[in-house]
Amino acid sequence: MIRAIRIFFATLLVITLLTLSGISAVGGAGIASFFQPHTAALMVQPDQVATTTVNNTATPSVNTAADTQSPPAQAGVIDARTAVRAAGPAVVTVVNQLGTTNNGGFGGGQAATAMGSGVIIDSAGFIITNDHVVEGQQSLQIIFSDGTKTDGTLVGADPFSDLAVIKVSAAVPAVAQFGDSDQLEPGQPVVAIGSALGDFANTVTAGVVSAIHRDLDDNSSTPSMKDLIQTDAAINHGNSGGPLLDLTGKVIGINVAVVRGDGSTGTDVAEGLGFAIPSNTAQQISSEIISKGVVERPYMGISYQPINRQIAAYYNLSRDSGLLVTDVAAGSPAATAGIQPGTIITNFNGTDITGDASLLELLLTYKVGDTIQLTIVQPNSTAEQNVNITLAQRPPGQ
After folding, report:
1. So what's the pLDDT on residue 59?
2. Cα separation values, 370 from 290, 366, 367, 393, Å
3. Which of 12, 301, 384, 386 has its C-alpha lying 20 to 30 A from 23's C-alpha?
4. How many whole angstroms separate alpha carbon 244 and alpha carbon 239?
5. Would you say 234 and 277 are in contact if contact means Cβ atoms under 8 Å apart?
6. Residue 7 predicted with pLDDT over 70
7. In this model, does residue 186 exceed pLDDT 60?
8. What is the pTM of this model?
9. Residue 349 buriedness (CB in 10 A; 0-12 / 13-18 / 19+)
10. Is-contact 349 385, C-beta < 8 A?
């Protein structure tokens, strides 16, 4: 089975404090890592010595100013140096302190720390990263490319786009510029920079745009990741939140996920399948977070179960497609419209609810304050009726 992996999770580090007599951490550090280190190197043109030919003999040339410049890239090798020089100083490591958990009854506790990447987008100290990098944070620390450390504060996060903004008060070493992701074409060279495996800060990899407008299924609790950039640039655990750059050093994406095979059969292992959130999306979402602290998302106030033939038979429903409402939040737009547990929703503002139509994704095409029409079947009824709902702002944490 092929699965999408949000690439931050494997950087979770756990420091276990063992206090029982006779128990000690191997090596004295007590650090357990949930990943196996491996390297992913960018092909780099080695320094060369310019030569001239005298009597058919190659000899070193006189050392001139031209000789001290960076050597030209070899044919077929992506020359990422301009991009790295432009944006590299603006790439940061994000350290998420998740707090201390219990140690399974063995005494002491576990200080959980997770690490990802980010990129500075404003001289005022704003840094964009992924929501899943900062999820569950109790405190944040930012490590600049030169190793300087400073505390960070979460400005806001948007789980639906998997983007978040952090603010630092310290002076920032550099600011990256956004490019126009709408202009990307398959085959275009790109560069990824991030804290590979959480430890190798500012690791550079290079590749091409493999495809655009890619969608990845996530799970039933959140919308699928939509309209992503696919790249074969090596993206490793810890690269989450780091930039995908064009060769001028402009940010054209925020790295978010990789696809791996489960490896159980040896026939479905996927490599070179990395994904990034387009820069135009990232710029829009981060601007809204910076100005408002949140991204306004429309909300109806229901929990639901997609209906198929098995669900319909089990609950003896009158429909074998649509959504079965399982809970309605008190005071929500759905409650105001008379929707109750057991109601079946068959149509959302003109779109039939089928296995291919996600309610969450349909909601995201509307704004807070919009009024939409639902076609529903109330409990203990077979007749369809239309009701209007005015969408509210999603409450925090829902």
Report:
1. 37
2. 24, 7, 6, 11
3. 12
4. 10
5. no
6. no
7. yes
8. 0.68
9. middle
10. no
How many other β-carbons are positioned within 10 Å of the β-carbon of residue 214?
A: 17
From the candidates 79, 131, 158, 162, give the one annotated as an active-site residue: 162
pLDDT higher than threshold 70 for residue 312: yes
Q: Where are the alpha helices (DSSP H) in 279-318?
A: 279-292, 309-315
162 as an active site residue: the answer is yes
Rounded Cα distance, 93 and 149, in Å: 9
- Distance, in Å, from the CA atom of 344 to the CA atom of 15, rounded to the nearest integer, reads 48
Residue 94 token pair:
């994000």
Query: Cβ neighbours of residue 186 under 8 Å, at least 6 residues apart?
Result: 208, 209, 210, 211, 212
Among 79, 117, 132, 145, the active-site one is 132
Residue 195 is encoded by which pair of tokens?
A: 């804290």
Amino acid at 82: T
Distances (CA, A) of 177 to 245, 251, 358: 10, 6, 34
Helix spans in 91-175 (H): 131-134
Q: Is 132 an annotated catalytic residue?
A: yes
Q: How far apart are CA 161 and CA 301, in angstroms?
A: 20
Region of poorest pLDDT, from 64-78, 102-116, 314-328, 378-392: 64-78
Q: CA 116, CA 374: separation in Å to the nearest integer?
A: 41
Selecting among 240, 279, 286, 321, the annotated active-site residue is 240
Among residues 21, 18, 24, 71, the alpha carbon closest in space to that of 46 is found at: 71
Chain-centroid distance, C-alpha 380: 43
| pLDDT score of 347 more than 50 | yes
Whether 38 sits among the annotated catalytic residues: the reply is no
| Residue type at 14 in one-letter notation | V
Mean pLDDT value across residues 125-149? 93
- Pairing state between β 163-167 and 126-129: antiparallel
The one-letter code for the residue type at 362 is L
Taking a C-beta distance cutoff of 8 angstroms, is the pair 89, 102 a contact? no
Residue 212: pLDDT band (50, 70, 90) is very high
